[in-house]
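User: quick one
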Amino acid sequence: VPDRLRVWPARDGDLAAVDLADVQAEGRCPVVRGGTPLAADFLRLTAQKLREPVLAAGDVTAAEFDQALADLQDPNITVVAPMTVAAWGMRPC
Amino acid sequence: LAVVKGYEYEHAWEMERVRLAGLESALDPGTREHLARLGVGPGTRCLEVGAGGGSVAFWLAGRVAPGGVVVATDLETDFLESAAPGYPTLEVLTHDITAADLPSGFDVVHARWLVEWLPDKRLALGRMVSALRPGGMLLIEEPDFVTIYGSGDSVAVRRVFIAAMRHLESTCPIDCEYGRRAMGIWQRWT
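Assistant: Done. Structure below.
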């Protein structure tokens, strides 16, 4: 799994639709263990807040949901976090 | 304060500051690299849109001193206000980017994990560009959950996040793969 991905601007993205010059971008994807702040605090709490409606939607069971929350606190589990794409450009002079 | 439809993470939730801190711990080093490379330093005028917990705004407030200014906006400003008195270069502004234009004339405008939630993403990006002086730089950092769908050790984590993203995308205007969509690179993986 790459820990760092690069992307290039395309013509139909939102950043091409606004008045910006020289748009560039770079994606970074943290790969962390369970129990780290990103996994145990951010990802676990992000999911936990949605527990009721997600279970009501029926795609996953309560047991699976609670296993995921436990895995995010388990240092033996590797978690591939969401990628963050940074994109920047200049307002034309 | 559900001005942004479907945004579940109100500050009144007792775990919200801890949740945000978990994200800040992972993202702040990269954000600082990007902002430093774009030239933020003493005297720079910065606008931080959707400043959230404030870790980036507080770092910027130190970095632009002396002579610079940081305006930090959010719908909920309590996290920002709690630390703002320690940063003389920091100004906190309650502002809804879906409803009103931003103040203008900034050298650098930054937003992180914000545009993904907004109903009219191009309108918000246009407002951020309008907040720049000519020659100023916009930096947005947006998530793309594609990497959590297919990798990692835990099948449960993958399945729960796919279900959670489906739930959010069916109930609010979020785009959980906006990182690539902003640039126009978008191939659905699920």
